[in-house]
Design brief:
Chain B: This is Dipeptide transport system permease protein DppB. The complex is a heterodimer of chains A (535) and B (334). Chain A has 535 residues and is α+β, with helices and mostly antiparallel strands. Helix content of chain A is 34%, strand content 20%. Chain A is built from 16 helices and 21 strands. Chain A is globular and about 75 Å long. The chains are: A alpha+beta (535), B mainly alpha (334).
């Protein structure tokens, strides 16, 4: 027995020597491997987490939707860099005067990856699958973007019908201004009805769409491999033969893998690593345009913030440039409106309240608070893209407010409690933020600042009749240019009323090899990669 | 010995049951509703309520616990909230990845640790001895994630010797059969891939091995020092026996009981260290599986994942106890 044990130890020793030996011998060969494969047309995208399911209709997480963007397509698309709507699977569409009927004319001759035809019937089957599911737990995103399921009072879509092979008609119960933007979101991509039927419960592991890439394999928590769709209907796309998504959870480790060349493109770059990427000639930095806002909110029902002058005074006492430089590591743009500039209807003519303590003091005096006042400042307890460090930002605000005589006492609590209490209107001065989902102004202005949203997301309890009227009018307006005008007007009033101090729109960072061409990170968080190439 | 083994195995049940209760209580104490997290911030309250009900989380906690235990007894580890598939069906690839990594790390730790300890003891108070003890101290206190990132920086990026992440070359992936890639590549006769897999094992393996290696080296040194002071060793040396023979034939065997104990314990702790190592090195193992489940409050995966790891830990300790008897004939189990 003893001999055997010693023998075993000896064997282990020899084995480990052998392993170490052969690994160091072969390591020279390893370096060159990355080189020759780069030209072969495989693009590897490193990211922080795995997909939940590859059936986009039943997911809400960004990591799943990144894959959906490659495998599937939507009826209408977002433009490359903004949330403007452009044709997708539908080449054109018309909207009735009353905004209740949308008629889409589909592209001809497109096939799903399984060889079945993409046509009006396929679209109807997809929409019916969501609309009649009545399963709020499964089709949650559909319920939240389209008001609910068939037959419910809040449902936006009444029915959808095919008219011939390539015409689809949507009839709505009531007009929905962001209807097209909602349809452009990847959860509402068109899947092969034959494949959904064939795979049943396992469809989420066997996705079939019309997109630039076909699904090949999935190793959970590791890699998802997609291959070129040879029959893709857009000429010249996709550029790469293979697209692989690799999970590397740690942000620094993911960057290391990029520097080493094991992956070609990564998201979730730490802002502090931006300089390192800029300084490396083999790498390039990408900034994803913002679709969020971080803000300092006033409860307009509470003293002293029921006085607009006090709110304006504090707006003059916030140094946004310094906040962004110090706490967003420079990866954000100062916010002057409640919505980011990538959105249609953004009012760029508004002049922000400049950082001017004298003006702030003067306004406070006019409001009757010559000696300032004391207030609790609620600091966000969790990091969010729009507010990476709530505590530090609160401390900086506190220091500036002190200079105009406003003594802020920083308060913080557990996140769920924080939200609950702010929602209930318990706080007078608080920090919060929002990330948009469909890239529509309505999703910011109406959701966050309309009087209808008090008690849900209008934490400031801001109620302005004129703004309310404008926002409702915009919801019913189907002419995009006219809608944009309405939103611009609303922003001007909101700016005057100052229910918030909008602080920043953060811009998430990505990095890639310098050989990557035509990659445009989209504000919604994911983008089709058919046009991306490696030179 | 057989009766003893059976007795020890039957003691597993209360241990695992108690552990399950602790884990169950802990994860339910973390704030955050799984349904809310899965559906996102924008989900309607109705959707959250519907999903909560579907997951069975609207039931009182004790009923949820009893249901979970009942399912366990029938061999059902539950279903993941996130992927909606049975955990018993999806856990093996993760477990295999971790077993491969942990075995590799343990071999490194034992071979390097024991031998370093022996040399250190033999040449007590030499420069090697001091150096090793300093290294052991540093090794024990080294945060794994930091060590991992440093390894990547030095050996991958600066020296370009080894890959930073994953189990295989992403551009030439291994076809899984058993999910133990070293075995799979050999079965398929792909020696190039075998070497690739070994290269991927080295950095995470060494990062994971560092702490146990340091501890094993220290225990070996002190245990050897004790044995080498005994009379029979002095006799052996006096009669002119070679150093190797004295060390490996006479001393190590007698010094091995405490070393074996520590090896057993460290193997268990290794599984904990695996969570950090796997996160840094993009290693799709069980640590990674549990870690991402925590982010999504995927209760069944957290519970069953930890349960499986704990069962392995307890089993390793049982094996170590049985090995005592194999090494030392004076120890007998009844």
């Amino acid at each position: 027995m003893k001999k055997r044990l010693l023998g075993m130890l000896a064997f282990l020793l020899v084995l480990s020597m052998a392993l170490i030996g052969c690994s160091s011998n072969s390591s020279d060969g390893g370096g060159s491997k990355g080189g020759d494969s780069a030209g072969g047309g495989t693009l590897i995208y490193g990211r922080g987490g795995d997909a939940v399911s590859l059936d986009p209709a039943i997911v809400t997480d960004g990591e799943s939707l990144i894959i959906a963007e490659q495998v599937y397509e939507t009826l209408v698309n977002f433009d490359k860099k903004t949330t403007k709507i452009i044709p997708g699977l539908a080449k054109k569409w018309t909207v009735s005067e009353d905004g209740l009927t949308y008629t889409f004319e589909l592209e001809d001759g497109i096939k799903f990856h399984d060889g079945t035809d993409f046509n009006a019937e396929a679209v109807v089957k997809n929409v019916d699958r969501w609309l009649t599911s009545n399963d709020e737990a499964k089709f949650a995103y559909f319920a939240s973007q389209f008001g609910g399921f068939k037959g419910s009072d809040t449902a936006i879509i009444k029915e959808v019908k095919a008219d011939g092979d390539n015409k689809v008609i949507f009839t709505l119960n009531k007009p929905q201004a962001p209807f097209l933007k909602n349809l452009a979101m990847s959860p509402f991509a068109i899947a092969s009805p034959a494949a959904i039927e064939k795979h049943g419960d396992k469809y989420g592991e066997n996705p079939v769409g019309t997109g630039p890439f076909k699904f090949e394999s999935w190793k959970r928590n590791d890699t998802i491999t997609l291959v070129k769709n040879e029959d893709y209907h857009k000429k010249g796309e996709p550029k790469v033969d293979k697209l692989i998504f690799k999970v590397i959870e740690d942000n620094s480790a993911r960057l290391n893998a990029l520097i080493k060349g094991e992956v070609d493109l990564i998201d979730g770059l730490n802002p502090s690593d931006a300089e390192k990427v800029k300084g490396d000639k083999n790498l390039q930095l990408f900034e994803r345009p913002s679709l969020n806002v971080g803000y300092l909110g006033f409860n307009v029902e509470k003293e002293p913030f029921n006085n607009p002058k006090v709110r304006q005074a504090l707006s003059h006492a916030v140094n946004k440039e310094a906040l962004i430089k110090n706490f967003y590591e420079g990866t954000a743009e100062p916010a002057k409106n409640p919505m980011p500039s990538t959105l249609q209807g953004y009012n760029d003519e508004i002049k922000d309240y400049e950082f001017n303590l004298k003006k702030a003091k003067k306004l406070l005096a006019e409001a009757g608070y010559k000696d300032g006042f004391k207030v609790d400042l609620w600091a966000m307890p969790v990091p969010r893209p729009y507010m990476p460090n709530g505590q530090k930002v609160a401390e900086a605000l506190q220091a500036d407010f002190e200079k105009i005589g406003v003594k802020a006492n920083i308060v913080t609590m557990e996140w769920a409690t924080y939200l609950e209490k702010v929602q209930a209107g318990e706080s007078a001065l608080f920090m919060l933020g929002w990330t948009g989902d469909n890239g529509d102004a309505d999703n910011f202005l109406y959701t966050l600042l309309d009087k209808d949203s008090i008690g849900s997301n209008n934490y400031s309890r801001y109620a302005n009749e004129e703004v309310h009227k404008l926002l409702l009018e915009a919801q019913a307006e189907t002419d995009e240019a006219k809608r944009a005008e309405l939103y611009k007007k609303a922003q001007a009033i909101i700016h005057e009323d100052a229910p918030w101090v909008p602080l920043a729109h953060s811009t998430p960072l990505l990095a890639g090899k310098s050989t990557i061409k035509n990659f445009f990170p989209h504000p919604t968080g994911s983008q089709p990669m058919g046009g991306v190439s490696i030179e | 010995m057989f009766a003893y083994t059976i007795r020890r195995l039957s003691m597993l049940i209360p241990v695992l049951l108690g552990m399950t209760l602790i884990v169950f209580s802990l994860i339910h104490a973390i704030p955050g509703s799984p349904a809310q997290i899965l559906l996102g911030q924008q989900a309607s309250p109705a959707a959250v309520a519907a999903l909560t009900k579907e997951m069975g989380l609207d039931q009182p906690l004790y009923i949820q616990f009893v249901d979970y235990i009942k399912n366990l007894l029938t061999g059902d580890l539950g279903e993941s909230f996130r992927t909606r598939s049975p955990i018993s069906a999806e856990i093996w690839p993760y477990l295999a990845a971790t077993i491969e990594l942990a075995l590799f790390a343990m071999i490194v730790a034992v071979v390097a640790g024991v031998n370093a300890g022996i040399i250190s003891a033999w040449f007590q108070n030499s420069w090697f001895d001091y150096l090793l003890m300093v290294f052991a101290l540093v090794g024990v206190s080294m945060p794994i994630f930091w060590l991992g990132l440093m390894e990547q920086y030095v050996f991958s990026i600066q020296l370009d010797w080894l890959p930073t992440t994953g189990r295989d070359n992403i551009r030439d992936p291994v076809t899984a059969i058993t999910h133990l890639y070293l075995l799979d590549t050999l079965l398929q006769g792909r020696f190039d891939q075998f070497i690739e897999v070994v290269k991927h094992l080295i950095l995470p393996g060494v990062a994971l091995a560092t702490i146990p290696m340091a501890i094993i080296a220290r225990i070996t040194r002190s245990s050897m020092l004790e044995v080498m002071r005994s009379d029979y060793i002095r006799t052996a040396r006096a009669k002119g026996m070679s150093m190797l023979k004295v060390v490996y034939k006479h001393s190590l065997k007698n010094a091995f009981i405490p070393i074996l104990t520590i090896i057993g314990l460290q193997t268990g702790l290794l599984l904990g260290g695996a969570i950090l190592t796997e996160t840094i090195f993009g290693w799709p193992g069980i640590g990674n599986y549990i870690y991402s489940a925590i982010q999504f409050r995927d209760y069944p995966v957290i519970q069953s994942g930890i349960l499986v790891v704990a069962a392995i830990f307890v089993l390793i300790n049982l094996i170590v106890d049985l090995l005592y008897a194999a090494i030392d004939p004076r120890i007998k189990y009844r």
